[in-house]
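Write out this protein's structure.
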Amino acid sequence: MLRYAINLPNFGDFADPHRLVDLARRAEAAGWDGFFLWDHIRAGEWAGPVTDPWVALAAVAGATRRLTLGTMVTPLPRRRPTTLARQTVTLDHLSRGRLVLGVGIGWPRDVDFADLGDSGDDRVRAAQLDEGLEVLTGLWSGEPYSFNGVHYHLKRTQFLPPPVQQPRIPIWVGAMWPRRRPFRRAARWDGMVPLVQDPEMDFRPPTAPEVAEMLDYVGEHRDPVAPFQVAVGGTLSGLADQGMTAPEVIGPYHEAGATWWMEAIGWPLRPYGFWPEYVSLGPPRLG
């Protein structure tokens, strides 16, 4: 079954948490399955105001009862895994087990990282991501835990309570095709949020055949029958002007193995005023 989510930035027109709560309520009432926020701290001077996605998601959790919630994606190298462990477990309890944690190395490497004193080196942040995930899940266990890595060092400690969800909060990993290492990383966890490198625009959403190719590769590195989520997306608004229907766009992704469609803001960014009515129409089901 393909599920449908709203996937919004945490800046610009969407930096007002009251607007995000209103859109989440509309999404739940209209039958959407999930509500996800980007996790930028600056996102460029053009972004304007920025809101903290974790505070905003806490407000969304309190205003909804059914929606899956999460970040798409949180750059773990920019957040201390000990602090994130507390935030995610708290939100998992607040939402009664509806949280998904999307993670990645983060982008842009200058605006959101190097300009603010963090590493702009993708390989360094990738190593921080791998270590950070080990620390995060170790602390989620609720058992005594210690860690001694290159980037993080924890003396024996115990974080309580554990998450509502067991064995852990689901982790979906952002991965850029055709790089293989991020997809091997995703194979160790619960899902992937794939993009494709593009020399003209940095990156783009994958095509359905590319999703199938990615999943073939991931399947070589994990139990092929174990549950694995695949979140793809774009904007479906304006398809009628192109002579297309939503099922024609989404169907091939579903056949390729996608499990979530993330309805996004499109580019250039659609302003907030477009969204209340659009979200209230409900998701574009396959049939």
